[in-house]
Every structure is written in structure tokens, then in C-alpha cells.
Amino acid sequence: MMGKSMVKSFWSALVIVTLTLSLAGFTMATEQVEGEAVDAAVAVDVITDINRDTRVITLKNEAGEYYAYTAGPEVKNFDQLKRGDLVIMEYYSGFAFALEPKGSGLEAKASTLTVKTAKLGQKPGVEVTGRYFVAAEIAGIDLKNGVVVLEGVEHVVALKVSDEINLSKLEVGEEVEALYATSYAISVTPAPQVSGTVKMKTKAVAVGIGVSWGEGTLSMYDGSEHEFSVRGLTLIDVGVSSVEATGEVYNLVEAKDLEGVFVAGEAGASLIGGGSVLALKNGNDVVMKLKTTQKGVRLSLAGQGLKVKLK
């Protein structure tokens, strides 16, 4: 489990910084927060399959890995999506349809419970069946957006919750049991034209810590180039002291829009196993998709997110 200081840092990056601050990383709060939007993980990949009945979308990333996401009723353009589309998807670790106090015996109900995410007669709707059980501590609550962050023994998950779950009756620090379906998408939009590309190189501050600093170059669609510094890209692999990465940037109007703190939504992004490709978003809604140029090297973020500053 994370220490309390790590938990607090983790949430400060989970809350969308639609405030003046750039987007802080996908982390967890140590107190209940009402009215603040929780940031979702981001993926920028190609649709390889769509199940119209179950609303399950399968994406393939540049590492050749496939991931399936259930498109919630928030995805209003579901019928317009098609195989082969390059999309920007925002998603949570999953969808919680049952959340009860510790010791409720919820795990035994996993094979029988289902939930509809829209009431009868409403469209679009989706029916999900539980596949995963977790006993965890509530690390953050977002009442406005209906999201709870749970810290278990092995990992952290950020879950959209069923309308049947009253989050206002829950408290941060409370021990609970949850049944959830994984990978719940809340937004799927066609990726716009690439507005810039980046090249960066980072170096570890100290072996074993992983937090890194580095520098890079942004090449914009208008032909201009801009140098920037970065801090917070983590090197997962033991023995790796530096990493080089390239990437594409979306939704960039001016070079200064690149500045801020990028977050990958760590709780959700942990579902993506390879780590050689990492999608990020900052408070200016700029999306950056990074991939390593070194074979076998994987990317992650420090708890504070990836801080970018123009020189």
C-alpha cells in the first residue's frame, strides 16, 4: 500500500487542473472532494473492433497491444465510430456497480450481479456484468463526476460508479469491497490532425528513484521549433539510466499550450501493460502520445506528472 504522503501526492495529480494550474497527475485525495472533476486516463489508438450490442470497443496501440473498453452512455457518438478510426479515448480503470462495507461478502455475488448504466427507455445504455472484486480503502471521492478512487494491496483504481451507489454516504479512509468491470470509456473522439511533434531525452536523477529530468524539442505544424525542459518521466526498467522518446501532439494552438503538467491517469493507464507507448494530457487539453526509441524500454510517470516548460 502507498504511504499517506504518496496517496496525497497521487490524488493531487488525479484531479483535473481546470483551475489555473496545469493538469496535475492522476493521483488520490486524502479528503473527500466535491465538485472537482477527476481526470481520466487517455489513449490515442486505432479502433480494430466494435461490438454494437455490448458497446465494447477494442483499440490497438503502436506496440501491437490490444485493449477492450466498454463505452458508457457518456459516449454519445458511439454509432458514428467505426473500425479503422484513430481516436482519442478518455477512460477510467473501470465501472463499479457494487460498493459495500468491508465484510459484506460481495465477492460471492460477482457471478450474479449486473447493472444498466442508463435507466430503461433511455438511450444510449449499456449493461455490464461484474468480473473483478477488490477489497480496498477509499482514497478519493469525486461526487460531481461519480468517481471513487480505491487503494488496494496491489494497485489503485479509479472507478465510475453506478447510479445505485450513493457516494455522499462514503468517506475517504473507509474500507470497502467493490465489484467492477474494467476499462470504462467516457469519451471517444476522432483524433484531430497532428499539430506538432516532440523529441525528448531524459536522464534519471538517481538510480532506483526513477524521477527524471530532461529536455526536448517541439516542432509545430507551422514549421517553428521550440525547446523545452521536462521533469517527471519515470524509467521503469532496472539498469536504465536514460530514455529517448518521440511523440505526436494534438490540440496544440500555440507553443505555450504545451507548458504545464501532463498526466496519463496512472490508475487507468496501469491497464496498459507494455509501457512503450504513453498517452498524456495537460490542463490546456493538449494530448501528447510518447513512444520510446529504445527497444524494450518502458515509460511511466512520477506521482507529480510530467512537467513541461518552454525555454
Question: What can you see in these coordinates?
Answer:
- This protein is mainly beta.
- Helices cover 4% and strands 45% of the residues.
- The protein has 2 domains: 4-190, no CATH class; 196-310, no CATH class.
- The protein has helices at 4-12, 266-269, and strands at 41-51, 56-60, 66-71, 86-101, 114-116, 127-129, 132-142, 147-151, 156-161, 175-190, 196-204, 212-220, 225-231, 233-235, 242-250, 260-262, 277-281, 287-292, 299-301, 306-310.
- Strands 1, 2, 3, 4, 7, 8, 9 and 10 form an 8-stranded mixed β-sheet that branches. An 8-stranded antiparallel β-sheet has the order 16-20-13-12-11-15-18-17, with no helix packed on it.
- Strand 2 (56-60) and strand 3 form a beta hairpin.
- The longest helix has 9 residues, at 4-12.
- The chain is globular and about 55 Å long.
- It starts with a helix and ends with a strand.
- The model is unreliable at 1-37 and 266-273 (pLDDT under 50).
Brief account:
This protein has two domains: 4-190, no CATH class; 196-310, no CATH class. 4% of the residues lie in helices and 45% in strands.
* Global mean pLDDT: 77
Oligomer: single chain
Span between N and C termini?
Answer: 38 Å
The number of distinct β-strands equals 20
The main pleated sheet reads as: 8 strands, mixed
Specify the number of helices: 2
Radius of gyration: 19 Å
Helix content: under 10%
**Low-confidence segments, ≥5 residues, pLDDT <50?**
1-37, 266-273
Query: What are the secondary-structure elements, in order, as H or E?
Result: HEEEEEEEEEEEEEEEEHEEEE
Class inferred from helices and paired strands = mainly beta
Strand fraction? over 45%
Q: How many individual domains?
A: 2
Shape, principal axes of CA atoms: globular
